[in-house]
Structures are given as C-alpha cells and as structure tokens.
Design goal:
Layout: H1 7-22, H2 35-59, H3 65-71, H4 82-113, H5 115-126, H6 145-157, E1 163-167, E2 172-174, E3 177-179, E4 184-188, H7 189-192, H8 212-217, H9 236-251, E5 254-258, E6 266-267, E7 273-274, E8 280-284
Antiparallel strand pairs: 1-4, 2-3, 5-8, 6-7
Helix pairs in contact: 1-2, 2-3, 2-4, 3-4, 4-6, 5-6
Length: 293
C-alpha cells in the first residue's frame, strides 16, 4: 500500500483480518455483534479508504502496488475506475499478502523445528557473497536451490489454501464415488499433500523431496499449493521471489529459536495461521557466523 506503519496501518490490518474471518462464518447475515457484521463493516471501510486515496496516488509517482494500480490504464487507454481499483486492492491483500504471510510463517516454524536445515540454507545464502551494504541482485535468486526446496516443502506440509473449488468437466470416479460432469468439487490440497502413497513419511520435513529427480518421479498434481493446469495461480513466481529475499535477509543475520510448544495448533480456515501467534526469538548471529563478514 505504500503506507507507513502505525495506527492507520494497524486499523487497515485489523479490518482485513475481520473481512477474511467473515468469509468462513456460518452466519451469513450481518447481525449485530456477529463476525459477518464485522466483515461487512471492514469491507466498507477498506473500499472507502482506497477510493479516497486514489486521486493523490494518481498524482504521485509512488512505486507501491496501490499507486501503480491507480496510474494503470485499461485496454482502451483509459484509467481504471475507482471501483475496479478498490476491488483489485481488496483482492490483492488476500491473494498476495495473506497467503504469503501464512507460507512464510509455516516455513519459519519448520526451520525453527529443524535447525540443521537452517544451517544448510544459511550456508547456501552465504555462498552468494553478499554484504549489508549491497543489494540482492535479482539474478542471484535462482542460485538458492535449497531455499526453494525448503519453501516448497513448507507449502506441502501447510498449504496456504487448503482446498480449491473446481467444476468437473467430465464424469469420473474417485474413492469409490461417481462424480458427474458439471459437479462442483473441492480439491483438498491439504489431504493430497499428506497422502503416504505420494509422500513417504508425510509429516517429516524433508526439502529433498523437491530435487529435480524426485519431482519427475511423482504425479504432476501431487503438489498443488498454487493449483494446476490452466488455472494455476499467477503468483507462483512472485511468492517464490519474496520468500527467497525474506530468508536471505533473515537467515544471514539471525537464528530462529521457537518457544517451547510454539505452533502446536493451527487454524486451518480460511487461511492457515498458528493459534498462539507462533512465539519465537530471532537470535542475532555471532560476527563470525554472519554471511556478510
């Protein structure tokens, strides 16, 4: 959004949380005091906020997503409407923010539980030869192969979108059930990612499941955190880039130390998150252990 952290940002964040939580509440009428009422009010607040900000963003030269949406034009060369911009931003906050936040949280937790993998990724990052004074060149990101595998394994174990709604385009059989063409079905990503016939020892964190050889040996839809086929999420590469940058800065400076029992229980819907907030510490690395020395 290109906005500074503070009270205003906190209110936006809370409004977005209320809006997302309302998406799964069983009471779909905005009764007073209900989660649905909170969600409806939150959406109204966010849409109004975005629309009020549009003129200033169009007049400025900000490089944040919101500002770029405000200056974007459609196929007809005309600026996007205020309604379109507000809706795009509201969706973007869920599709590109909440999901990546969930994924980053699960990866940090799994690295905290598996310190040997922290060290492997830290060594890989150190191999880039970066320092605090220099920027991270985009071309260097593809060298972080183990980091990419660790992210994929975190997405397997705790997919940010637990299920995908789809429509059957032809009749098929699954699990002894006949599914006729045209039926609305929900593909359980979380279940698929824990099928032992596809993933031996599925509850074990093992990024080496994603070596090129291992990937080629599996069914192409065994791993579907971003969906698959024509409807695969466009954010796949953007999310991967964000995580590589995050871990480069994090693991080159800190060791992840989880509090006892942290992350033991997760809220699964609508987007996974630890019920305890994942209490942890980022312990500064000793000078001799940092990748910038």
């Amino acid at each position: 959004l290109g906005m500074p952290l503070g009270e205003a940002a906190n209110r936006i964040n809370q409004a977005f949380v209320d809006e997302v939580q309302a998406s799964i509440t069983p009471i779909r009428i905005p009764l007073p005091g209900s989660q649905m009422r909170k969600g409806v009010k939150a959406r109204a607040y966010l849409i109004d906020l975005f629309k009020r900000e549009i003129p200033a963003r169009r007049a400025g030269d900000g490089q944040d997503f919101f500002s770029q949406f405000c200056r974007a034009t459609g196929d007809d060369g005309q600026p996007l409407s205020a309604d379109a911009i507000a809706d795009h931003m509201n969706f973007l906050m869920m599709a590109a923010h909440d999901t990546i936040t969930s994924s980053a949280t699960s990866l940090v937790m799994l690295l905290g539980r598996n310190p040997e993998w922290q060290e492997k990724l830290r060594a890989e990052i150190a191999g880039l030869g970066l320092n605090d004074a220099g920027a991270l060149p985009y071309g260097q990101l593809d060298r972080l192969e183990l980091t990419d595998m660790a992210f994929k394994e975190a997405l397997r174990m705790i997919p940010p979108v637990p299920s995908l709604p789809r429509r059957a385009i032809k009749d098929f059989e699954f699990g002894g059930y006949h599914i006729p063409a045209g039926s609305t079905v929900s593909v359980s990503v979380a279940y698929t990612h824990m099928m032992p016939e596809l993933w031996p020892e599925p509850t074990r964190f093992d990024p080496l499941r994603f070596t090129s050889e291992a990937v080629r040996a599996r069914h192409k839809y065994a791993w579907v955190p971003f969906g698959g086929g024509a409807h695969m999420c466009l954010g796949l590469h953007f999310a991967t880039m964000q995580i590589r940058i995050l871990l480069t800065h994090l693991l080159s400076r800190y060791r992840i130390a989880l509090e006892e029992g942290a992350g033991a229980e997760w809220q699964a819907w609508p987007i996974p998150r630890p019920k305890d907030g994942l209490p942890l510490r980022f312990v500064p690395l000793a000078p001799g252990h940092r990748s910038d020395t």
